[in-house]
Structures are given as structure tokens and as C-alpha cells.
């Protein structure tokens, strides 16, 4: 297990401080958006497939059972729970790093949960690190499909949790797309400061 440390609330300009490991002199900087805001905009298309999946899931369960399966007020409870699970989302990123590596969990003001680490991971392991939080969407979505259609309370809460879990990792999906596109086979990938490199 890596050394996971809670750092509390930090400012955007402090991210670099916690994401500085040893960078190989031959590391090549990836072509990525210059700021987090630009990255979120570039990554936005990756939110569309999960949204389609979620709306199809609700439609299909309702269509198969011929009645409403989600009650909006209950669904908002699930959305709130899903937002609180953001800390688990970041822990799922962190646990992929090897034993002894320092990983930092915190909240960038005002409220953006982050996992920060600077250590070279093999390309496949880096992809796993990025995509692992989708578990928080896939597992509740499976439960949603398996739960009794007439249990509106359970269906609505689970659907809300699944919605957040499926949609929130879209910037991570964008990172995976860029790694697949830019990083040659056999290379390692490392966050360093505000940038991403391959070695």
C-alpha cells in the first residue's frame, strides 16, 4: 500500500507542491491542456457516453416493468451520497500506487476532491489508476438493475449514487484517451507538478 496522507483544503497553486517526485531527465512532456479549466472543457465529450448509459438504464428498467422506477426527491439523496463518496473516488486512485509512494488526498478550494502523487507508473497501471473509480458507478448501476422495480426508495437512491459514480470520472477518461494516443508501448507515465510526462 502507498503512504496515503490527508492534506485537507488546499489552493489550486498548492497542487504542484504535492505532485513533485523525482522526474527522469529523459521524460517527455505530454501535450495536455494548460490549465485545469481548459482540461475540463476538453474532456467534456467524455461525459456524454456515461450520461447516455444512465438515461438508457432508467428508460429500460421503467419500460421493462411498465412503470416509474425512480422518484426524483429520493434520487437527490443518492446524488448527495454520491458526492460524499468523492473521497472514496480519490482513494481508489491512490491505492494503485506501489508500496511506500506518498499519495495525498485533499480538497482544492472551494470543493474539488483530489488525489495527488508523482511517481512513474507503467502505462497499463496508470490506465487502471485513472479508471478504477468507475467502480463507484458500475456497482450501483448493477444493483439498480437487479433491485425490485417497485422499490422506489432503493432504486432512486442507488440510481443517484450510480449517476455520480459514472459521470464524475470523465476527466480521468480523458487522461486515459491521451495516454493511449500519446504514450508509446512499454513507457511509464508520471504526473509532475501540473503536467503529465512519459518515460
Describe the structure.
This protein has helices spanning 15-18, 36-43, 48-65, 72-84, 86-94, 123-131, 135-146, 152-167, 170-182; strands at residues 3-10, 28-29, 102-108, 112-116, 121-122, 188-192, 195-198. Helix 6 (123-131) runs antiparallel to helix 9. Helix content is 51%, strand content 17%. The strands form 2 sheets. It has a 4-stranded antiparallel beta sheet with strand order 2-7-6-5. Strands 1-3-4 form a 3-stranded mixed beta sheet, with helices on one face. It is of the alpha+beta class and 199 residues long. It is built from 9 helices and 7 strands.
Question: Summarize this, please?
Answer:
This protein has 199 residues and is α+β, with helices and mostly antiparallel strands.
Keywords:
199 residues, alpha+beta, 4-stranded antiparallel beta sheet, 3-stranded mixed beta sheet, elongated
Give the helix/strand layout.
Blueprint: E1 3-10, H1 15-18, E2 28-29, H2 36-43, H3 48-65, H4 72-84, H5 86-94, E3 102-108, E4 112-116, E5 121-122, H6 123-131, H7 135-146, H8 152-167, H9 170-182, E6 188-192, E7 195-198
Parallel strand pairs: 1-3
Antiparallel strand pairs: 2-7, 3-4, 5-6, 6-7
Helix pairs in contact: 2-9, 3-8, 4-8, 6-9, 7-8
Tell me the overall shape. Answer: elongated
| Helix and strand element order | EHEHHHHEEEHHHHEE
Strand count, sense and barrel status of the largest sheet are:
4 strands, antiparallel
Cα separation of the termini: 23 Å
Radius of gyration equals 18 Å
Q: Which structural category fits the helices and strands?
A: alpha+beta
- Number of distinct helices: 9
In helices, the fraction of residues equals: 40-55%
Q: Give the neighbour order of strands across the main sheet.
A: 2-7-6-5
> Averaging pLDDT over every residue, what do you get?
94
Amino acid at each position: 500500500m502507498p503512504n496515503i496522507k490527508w492534506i485537507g483544503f488546499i489552493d489550486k497553486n498548492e497542487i504542484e507542491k504535492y505532485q513533485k517526485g523525482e522526474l527522469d531527465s529523459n521524460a517527455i512532456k505530454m501535450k495536455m491542456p494548460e490549465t485545469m479549466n481548459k482540461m475540463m472543457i476538453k474532456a467534456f465529450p467524455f461525459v456524454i457516453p456515461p450520461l447516455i448509459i444512465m438515461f438508457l438504464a432508467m428508460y429500460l428498467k421503467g419500460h421493462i416493468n411498465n412503470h416509474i422506477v425512480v422518484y426524483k426527491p429520493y434520487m437527490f439523496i443518492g446524488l448527495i451520497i454520491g458526492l460524499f463518496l468523492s473521497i472514496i473516488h480519490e482513494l481508489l486512485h491512490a491505492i494503485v500506487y506501489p508500496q511506500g509512494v506518498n499519495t495525498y488526498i485533499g480538497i482544492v478550494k472551494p470543493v474539488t476532491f483530489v488525489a495527488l502523487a508523482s511517481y512513474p507508473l507503467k502505462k497499463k497501471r496508470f490506465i487502471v489508476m485513472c479508471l478504477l473509480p468507475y467502480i463507484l458507478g458500475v456497482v450501483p448501476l448493477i444493483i439498480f438493475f437487479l433491485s425490485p422495480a417497485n422499490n422506489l426508495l432503493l432504486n432512486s437512491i442507488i440510481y443517484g449514487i450510480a449517476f455520480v459514480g459514472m459521470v464524475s470520472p470523465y476527466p480521468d477518461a480523458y487522461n486515459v484517451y491521451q495516454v493511449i494516443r500519446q504514450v508509446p508501448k512499454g513507457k511509464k507515465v508520471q504526473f509532475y507538478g501540473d503536467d503529465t510526462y512519459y518515460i
